[in-house]
């Protein structure tokens, strides 16, 4: 069992900078938790407080029911895998993995068994005699993981462990870490600024901004029901399109007005805006690129939700095409089928699915619907 909780945790650095503000999180046994957010949002600081490498200014860190704030890092039963792997260059793979156990005076035959087991899990058996310089980036990464695994810790902490790998290897290691999580049944807290990594790995994702938690949810929920404008814009690539709009209410109907357009909202969404008192108010209209279409079939189906613009960019992704254009001064993108006839400079019509519309409060930036 390895449950972990952070209660009202704050970090104020000696220069007075508040890097983490009132952080509350309950991590259950075997969860794969991701901390994600832009550079400087406090991801590493939080992870380092859990590891004991950074003092907690106020609040509590509890692991398996025990307050750990003042427990030495080495006694927290936590293993940390860093971005730069921190392998000892003069030691073999075996010795790198065995090092922590040797320090703990674990018997030699037990060390051998543990290292060999970790090497088997990580497919490093044939490399145990090599030095780090004779390994590829991905192999070094696995050695760093191995060093953590042999300790059989309660919690694994990983700080951007894939950031030094090339794009192809990252994808490969991503799936290896995911299957490792399943095989080990371990509790993992993983830091990344890459939202794709967050979405593919995490069972739950913590989105941070300026040291404050914006939302904690499953990848699916974050994507489909973001709490606010920040999460909506951060999760998803290319990001959600946003247009400043005005809410117009006529009886039981609500419309979003922007530029020359007036789009009617589906009943349930209209009700939320009307009940929330948004009639006549400024809001932000959001729509994801994949919910905008250019096919004749969709233009017909969503005839009341049409926009038109000049194509300012065309990117073939393989199975799909990204079209870039501008509406009401906002730069937008649509992810359409690769057989689209649209090309750079064309004036095209697009339609979007009204049920996929997101609406945010312009002032508070919170999600209305
Ligand atoms: P990145 O993705 O760039 O690594 P991060 O989200 O991990 O960013 P942190 O390293 O946790 O961010 O830093 C959070 C904030 O705290 C940053 O604004 C950083 O400049 C600040 N900070 C970090 N260490 C110190 C320190 N020792 N003293 C003062 N401020 C610090």
Automatic annotation (TrEMBL):
Q: Which GO terms describe its cellular component?
A: ATP-binding cassette (ABC) transporter complex, substrate-binding subunit-containing
Tell me which Gene Ontology terms the entry assigns under biological process. Answer: carbohydrate transport
Which key words tag this protein in UniProt?
A: ATP-binding, Nucleotide-binding, Transport
Domain annotation ABC transporter: ranges: 4-235
The record's annotation in Pfam families points to: ABC_tran, OB_MalK
Q: Which Gene3D superfamilies did the record assign?
A: 2.40.50.100, Nucleic acid-binding proteins, P-loop containing nucleotide triphosphate hydrolases
Look up keyword Isomerase and say if it applies. no
Q: Which domain of life is it from?
A: Bacteria
Single GO MF annotation: ABC-type transporter activity
PROSITE patterns recorded for this chain?
A: ABC_TRANSPORTER_1 (PS00211), ABC_TRANSPORTER_2 (PS50893)
Q: Which NCBIfam families match?
A: PRK11650.1
According to UniProt, the name of this protein is ABC-type sugar/spermidine/putrescine/iron/thiamine transport system, ATPase component
Q: Per the UniProt entry, what species is this protein from, by scientific name?
A: Agathobacter rectalis (strain ATCC 33656 / DSM 3377 / JCM 17463 / KCTC 5835 / VPI 0990)
Cite the source lineage. Answer: Bacteria, Bacillati, Bacillota, Clostridia, Lachnospirales
């Amino acid at each position: 069992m390895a449950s972990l909780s952070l209660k009202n945790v704050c970090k104020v650095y000696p220069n007075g900078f508040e890097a983490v503000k009132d952080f509350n999180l309950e991590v259950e046994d075997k969860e794969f938790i991701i901390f994600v957010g832009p550079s400087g949002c406090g991801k590493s600081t939080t992870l380092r407080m859990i590891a004991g490498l950074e003092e907690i200014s106020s609040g509590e860190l509890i692991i398996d029911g025990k307050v750990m704030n003042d427990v030495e890092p080495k006694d927290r039963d936590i293993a940390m895998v860093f971005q730069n792997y921190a392998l000892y260059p003069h030691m073999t793979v075996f010795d790198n993995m065995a090092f922590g156990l040797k320090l703990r005076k674990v018997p030699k035959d037990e060390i051998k068994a543990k290292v060999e087991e970790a090497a088997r899990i990580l497919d490093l058996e044939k490399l145990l005699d090599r030095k780090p310089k004779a390994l590829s980036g991905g192999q070094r990464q696995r050695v760093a993981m191995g060093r953590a695994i042999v300790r059989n810790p309660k919690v694994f902490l990983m700080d951007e462990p894939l950031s030094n790998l090339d794009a192809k290897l990252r994808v490969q290691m991503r799936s290896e870490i995911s299957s490792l999580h399943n095989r080990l049944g371990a509790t993992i807290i993983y830091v990344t600024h890459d939202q794709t990594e967050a979405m593919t790995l995490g069972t739950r994702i913590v989105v941070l901004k300026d040291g404050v938690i914006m939302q904690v949810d499953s990848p699916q929920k974050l994507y489909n029901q973001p709490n606010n404008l920040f999460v909506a814009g951060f999760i998803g690539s290319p990001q959600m399109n946003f247009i400043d709009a005005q809410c117009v209410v006529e009886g039981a109907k609500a419309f979003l007005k922007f530029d020359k357009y007036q789009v009617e909202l589906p009943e349930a969404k209209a009700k939320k805006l009307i009940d929330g008192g948004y009639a006549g108010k400024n809001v932000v209209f959001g729509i994801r690129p994949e919910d905008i279409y250019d096919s004749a079939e969709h233009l017909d189906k969503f005839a009341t939700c049409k926009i038109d613009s000049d194509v300012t960019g065309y990117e073939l992704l393989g199975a799909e095409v990204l079209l870039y254009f501008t509406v009401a001064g906002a730069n937008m993108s649509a992810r359409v089928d690769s057989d689209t006839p649209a090309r750079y400079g064309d004036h095209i019509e697009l339609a979007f699915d009204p049920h996929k519309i997101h609406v945010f409060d312009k002032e508070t930036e919170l999600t209305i619907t």
